[in-house]
DNA sequence: CCGTCATAGTTGAACTCTCAACTAATTAGC
DNA sequence: GCTAATTAGTTGAGAGTTCAACTATGACGG
């Protein structure tokens, strides 16, 4: 009954696994080394920096980062200790919290960004031709689409 | 100086990030739920099951799994507690250790495999057409190749 | 041989993530 | 309005990962 992987699929799966793991590990290591934060935390700062007023509801932010609420809660607690984010009560829903990017957080992000972008470019985009980039986009969208359906 | 990402690259990067994260999270959750182990541990069992005599040197195994030595050491310790792997002194190098898949470990793997493969198929391959699978393979190889060069 | 350097693997602490349980506030049904 | 069900977010414990420090063995140059 099991629909096993054929050789082509098996090889693709292992290559994909190896590549994404190595890529993420490299970016995480670089970011940790140069900016003192893991990639997941960097992404939180990015999302906040793009939000109006540099703030977002916790849930919104969790969705944007593809993170669980719990994970985000712990992460924001950590970022608060660093002084890069602060929490604020939501004015329209008394259950809610806003995560707000501080000026110091924005400064950190501005410092970290060039190095990280260079990492993404050199490890990923420099290795692919334009049509591969386009295809990677379509492939990623397809995977994400499938997973969203599964959840529904 | 910084080679920033253009819109197409930015969108591709975020889609890729979201897709791989969601995919790995889903597979990890399924494996944890159905087999009581994370994906990284499953991979260790797979590699051992493919090795002659069901055993491998720790370093070899770490390389095969794209894992650090430390990570593997902790993981094998955990798998040893579960009785799925055991350690054995290497006969040719007194510094070395062999990780050996136990019969019970093999049984666990055999039980876990169909569910996991179904996950990989439904979440990944069912979402892609054959040419996308082929392209994903080439893209993954390119990324991996680039990272290996970087290290050298 | 002997000192130096590299390799194999482990360890503990600090950190991050997951999961389930929990509080508190909002919404929906009757 | 009042109770029940959702939703927002937090918390603590347990599990996995990272990093640097460490032990022990093997390899190499003189």
What's the pLDDT, averaged over the residues of chain A? 97
From N to C, what is the helix and strand string of chain A?
HHEHHEEHH
Domain count of chain A: the total is: 1
Number of helices of chain A: 6
CATH homologous superfamily title of chain A: Winged helix-like DNA-binding domain superfamily/Winged helix DNA-binding domain
DSSP E strands of chain A, number: 3
Structural class of chain A: mainly alpha
Q: Roughly how many Å is the radius of gyration of chain A?
A: 18 Å
Across the major sheet of chain A, the strand order is 1-3-2
Helix content of chain A: 55-70%
CATH topology (level 3) name of chain A = Arc Repressor Mutant, subunit A
Molecular shape of chain A: globular
User: Could you describe the largest sheet of chain A, including whether it forms a barrel?
Assistant: 3 strands, antiparallel
CATH class of chain A: Mainly Alpha
Strand content of chain A: 5-15%
Which protein chains make the most extensive interface, counting residues with beta carbons within 8 Å of the other chain's beta carbons?
A-B, 54 and 54 residues
CA(first)-CA(last) distance of chain A: 25 Å
Named CATH architecture of chain A: Orthogonal Bundle
Oligomeric state as shown: homodimer
